[in-house]
Design brief:
43 residues, single chain, mainly alpha, 2 helices, 0% strand
C-alpha cells in the first residue's frame, strides 16, 4: 500500500551554531546575501 500522507522528513543543512560561525556579524551576512542575489556584483 502506498503512502498518501507525508512521513518523517529529515532535512540536511546547517544548524544554528554553523550559521553563527559563518556569519559572525551583520555585514558578513549582508555581503553573502548580496553575492548570492546579484552573482558577485556588490556595490
Amino acid at each position: 500500500m502506498t503512502q498518501k500522507a507525508p512521513g518523517k522528513f529529515y532535512c540536511k543543512g546547517m544548524n544554528l551554531i554553523e550559521i553563527m560561525h559563518m556569519f559572525p556579524n551583520d555585514r558578513t551576512a549582508e555581503k553573502w546575501f548580496e553575492l548570492q542575489r546579484w552573482e558577485g556584483t556588490t556595490n
